[in-house]
Write a structure and sequence with these properties.
225 residues; alpha/beta; Rossmann fold; 8 helices; 51% helix; 14% strand; globular; oxidoreductase activity; SDR_fam; oxidoreductase
């Protein structure tokens, strides 16, 4: 393991040595930063993404930093691929998982009247249903660890109305409520559930969404709220 950049005080207080984590959508944007943070604190991390080349590139970078990170391909929209992912995680981490970060998501901005059934199914399926199902699949592993933590990467859009984001916002709002129910029902298993709801972050996802919306000025104003 590479030497951490953190002070010895922080090493002792925040160390994740011996902990295991799964981060979905870990090759880009917020997910990439989460992986780096967890690994730097000493956790062993498994990531998933749809593109194997992206995974390989990131794994090579992290290997050079001395981080313990593995990865596998998964399109979270599909039930069977989510099951396969968790089977892989169980093998990699010997049946125990401390941290599940539901980060992967998509955002296709459109006016309300332009959204199709397929748009809705794909967005809700990727952003919410996949995370819900992964929590179900991960429950035995999180419980087995004795100290489980679920983190949803939501959005301020789940709390505040955004133009051209009705479906995305609905998926994030559902995520927010789901975390509350998970925390309530699984506290007895020593599993916590929390949500992080950032504002606009200049990731590839946000940049692409902004271009599709064609409303850079409007989005910039939202960013400042």
């Amino acid at each position: 393991m590479a030497e951490t950049k953190l002070s010895s005080f922080k090493d002792q207080r925040w160390s994740l040595q011996g902990m295991t984590a799964l981060v979905t959508g870990g090759t880009r944007g917020i997910g990439y930063a989460i992986v780096e943070g967890l690994a730097e604190f000493g956790a062993s991390v498994h990531i998933c993404a749809r593109n194997q080349e992206d995974i390989n590139k990131c794994l090579e970078e992290w290997k050079g930093k001395g981080f313990c990170v593995t990865g596998s391909t998964c399109d979270l929209l599909f039930h069977d691929q989510r099951q396969k992912l968790m089977e892989t995680v169980a093998l990699v981490f010997d049946g125990k998982l401390n941290i599940l970060v539901n980060n992967a998501g998509i955002f296709t901005p459109k006016p309300i009247m332009d959204y199709t059934d397929e748009d809705i199914t794909t967005t809700i399926g990727t952003n919410f249903v996949s995370g819900y199902h992964l929590c179900q699949l991960a429950h035995p592993l999180l419980k087995q660890s004795g100290n489980g933590s679920i983190v949803f990467i939501s959005s301020i859009a789940g709390l505040k109305a955004w133009p051209f984001a009705s479906v995305y916002a609905a998926s994030k709002g559902a995520m927010n409520q789901c975390a509350k129910n998970l925390a309530l029902e699984w506290a007895k298993d020593n599993i916590r559930a929390n949500v992080v709801a950032p504002g606009a972050v200049m990731t590839i996802l946000f940049e692409n969404a902004a271009k599709l919306a064609g409303e850079w000025i409007m989005l910039s104003r939202i960013w400042c709220l």
